[in-house]
Amino acid sequence: MMTMPYLAPSLLPSLKIYHHPDFILPQREHLSPLVKYTRLQESARLVNPATIDLAPPREAERKLRLAPHTLDSAKSCVRRHWLSQYVGISSEPVKLPFVPRGDEPPSGDYTPLAANELGSLFHRLVELGLPNPGISGEQPSTPLSEQWVSPSPNMMLEPTLISQVLDELLPASADRDLAFEMLNKMAEILLNGKLGRLVQGATIDGLYVEGLRTEWPFLVNIEQPLSDVMEHSWSPFGNQIVEQITSLTFELDGIADLVLCQTDGQSHNTIRAIDLKTTGGLSILNQPDDVEGTIFEIPSDPDNEIIRTPAELELLTHYRMQLYLYHLCLVRQEAMRETLGMATREVLRPGILVASTGRLISWTEEEFEQIGEEFDDLIKQLALVEVKEKGDEVNFPRLPIEEEQTCRQCPYYRGNIRLCAPNGIALGAVESDEIDLK
Which neighbouring-strand residues pair with 220? Predict the structure, then answer.
């Protein structure tokens, strides 16, 4: 090995040979567990040297992905947002296997259709069957893709299309004939309402439809600047600042039910988002005799969007954050068009189509400005929850008993196991009779 080490010349002047590994490995010290933990404890109590020069914390930006529908639930109760987003509890009510009592009659052959199932069916019918009058001239007033302006026939009442929708989405245990009648009735009501007449080519308030898009996808980033938000890390000398969080960007993507483009044929060109709500749809074939105070109540002027009944106002309040987000997406889209030198549209306030009455409802200008301020406050609050408050349940107290009505709409309050409730109401198992009352 000295003469032929297969290395470059003069790189191996000598070669040591050891007869035992003890001469190579360092001397090992065998310590008892008590000595080990005593030394560890002493190390943890070291005095923080005053001479340590800590580097300034680096600045960092964070991102958080949110579903648009969670905004309204977070607005109504931030504890619900915390339980879902950070604790990881499913947003479905806890349901235990149903055991019928001896005095209960046997159930029928069909399972009643759930409200969300009817909503999915009607949304699909509108997606496939809503008519589009298309453009009246050779070109739209502002650039729109062919998908927006291509005329399509009215298929809302076509039995074959309704059957197709039922084939796709109807649960096997549901009554198909009853579901067919409900969808057909809701389609009739929609077509007779303001939106239905618009998409069939009518001119209302000086505007007519020249393009529309059902199931409009969107993605929007909302940045919230932050100040004095530090992230700490444990050390034997106490918590040390690791970085300063300067902003949190919310990524929200989803699908708007309908976006409508209208024009007066001259220079007034508009765009607005419309959300479909099937509240009360399960009673569409058996409406109450006294509709006052229900979603079936219709004001004196059905086409006036800002004359609203108490039930309609409640519906608008419940979904105001989600609708404002749709509006914000369109505002940013049109601002981008203007930056690129393209023709733009005026973004009108969004609206809700009440499927049970065919009414199109919206907010006044003053109300919508207030909603914008609430939206900004909510974004700021959710940003602080993400970067500062999420680790301590104390920051998310239960609602007072006076707000029990809000809790009745929460999945953590409903169901067989009550996971959350207002102050003063016990958590845990709930009697079936009590659930039925909710």
Answer: 252
Prediction pTM value? 0.83
Q: Render pLDDT for 339-352 as a digit per residue (tens, 0 to 9).
A: 999 999 999 999 99
- 311: Cα within 13 Å, side-chain hemisphere: 17
Please check whether residue 279 is in contact with residue 180, taking contact to mean a CB–CB distance below 8 angstroms: no
Which tokens sit at 309?
């009944």
User: Of 267, 262, 268, which Cα lies nearest the Cα of 135?
Assistant: 262
Q: Report the alpha-carbon angle 269-131-195, nearest 5.
A: 60
DSSP 205: T
| pLDDT score, position 437 | 38
- SS3 label, residue 402: helix
- At 6, is the pLDDT very low, low, confident or very high (cuts 50, 70, 90)? low
- Alpha-carbon span 188 to 192, nearest angstrom: 6
Start-to-end C-alpha separation, the chain: 89
Instruction: Please give the Cα distance from 80 to 114 (Å, whole number).
Output: 23
Quick one: pLDDT band at residue 24, thresholds 50, 70, 90? confident
Q: Give 42's contacts (C-beta < 8 A, 6+ positions apart).
A: none
Q: Which helix (DSSP H) or strand (DSSP E) does residue 38 occupy?
A: helix 33-44
Could you give the CA distance from residue 319 to residue 314 in angstroms, rounded to a whole number?
9
Closest to 86 measured CA to CA, from 410, 393, 409, 416 = 393
How far are the Cα atoms of 13, 188, 238, 283 from residue 289, in angstroms, in the given order?
A: 108, 20, 69, 12
